[in-house]
Amino acid sequence: MKRRKPVRASDGLANVRYEIRGKLARRALTLERQGYDIVSLNIGNPYAFGFRTPETMRLAMIENLRNSEGYVHQKGIFPAREAVVMQQQERGVRGVTAEEVFIGNGVSELIDLALRALLNAGDEVLVPSPDYPLWSAAVNLNGGRAVHYPCHAARSFIPDPDEIESLITKRTRAIVIVNPNNPTGAVYPRETLTAIARLAEKHRLVVLCDEIYDHILYDDAKFVPMATLVHDTLCCTMSGLSKVYRACGYRVGWASFSGDVEGAAEYLSGLELLSSLRLCSNVPGQWAVQTALGGYQSILELTRPGGRLYESRAAIIEGVARSKYLELSRPMGALYAFVQVRSEVLPDFDDQAFALDLLDRKHVLVAPGVSFNVAYRNAFRITNLPEPEVIATVFTRIEELLDAQGAEGPDLKIVSAAAQVRQH
């Protein structure tokens, strides 16, 4: 029998990774099918942990189902885009109209479209490290090169603008800002964002702002919209319903353009062309946008002391503080903690091997740090979506596993909670 030629994947996928839903997640599914209960902390999916979309949003969608059966404008329905404009204006962003707003099938689609309309082969995009890996993947898929600017744990994962500027070349087209940050939970101060805005204007970089967690803040953290600081170059603000409004399955995101819109007319025309090629984004979910942005912000109940997200985050901080092995830069926003293993205690720690061991032996699924394009191998990301009691159980299992791994290692020294959980 003649041997058939295999169907090979595109060479363009060679540098594309999304390990959050990769081999470990497939292994977890296999274990679940075998009857094991897996605590899945690898994805920020509120519905999986009992959170519901606000009822007013569900009703808005239901009441407009009759108006959702046909194609709509490629940029999205006007009420949704106008709601985004109103939010931007209330935040002090100047010059935005509905013409500068694009509705997409989640922020994920808009990331791909925005980069596809922008990049030529070999163009560079500055992306944070650790990053949300879709950004690096989308740059690579669209012929560009992701250049990672480091966000060091020693600086509470706040980037250094001077370090960023040192990476800019003649091929650099854009810079990505993820604030509040996924995976670290860092919330960037105004002075850092202002400095990045000035260097972007100086080098005529497009500023791509992923602000999907804009209302998810803890303690005294303050969110500063990047679009209020960028004036003399193009700024793209991306957000959506998935996280703040617990509506991941609606697949509704938006991109709002401000700053030097006039100088970006050709680019925006290209983005509209790409939007037209996919006809339009999911229509029913768009009807929830106006209600979401203009209504009661129930997320505030969840992020203040006593709220579910606040208390689960506190359980993570406490779990790290009690550990002989772990340390953490206190997350001030978003739905995650980027936990690190103390290298002086477990010098041979490997995040991927640990994550697999934790899954197989303790039935807990986490995302190893290497998934987020970092050079080191001593970190992992977890979400604070579960109940605090579940978080406490998870850290007990983690400590048991690390005890086993460190049994033959150096003498362990318990450091204080203040040393392990860095404040900022």
Number of strands: 14
Radius of gyration: 22 Å
Write down the secondary-structure element order: HEHHEHEHEHEHEEEHHHHEEHEEEHHE
Give the DSSP E fraction (strand runs of 2 or more residues): 15-25%
Q: Percent range for helical residues? A: 25-40%
User: Mean of residue pLDDT?
Assistant: 93
Structural class: alpha/beta
Specify the CATH class of the largest domain.
Answer: Alpha Beta
* CATH structural architecture of the largest domain: 3-Layer(aba) Sandwich
Uncertain parts: 410-424
The termini sit apart by 67 Å
Shape: globular
The CATH homologous superfamily of the largest domain corresponds to Type I PLP-dependent aspartate aminotransferase-like (Major domain)
- Number of helical stretches of at least 4 residues: 14
Q: Number of folding domains?
A: 2
Biggest sheet statistics: 7 strands, mixed
Tags for this entry?
424 residues, 14 helices, Aspartate Aminotransferase, domain 2, Aspartate Aminotransferase, domain 1, five-stranded mixed beta sheet, single chain, alpha/beta
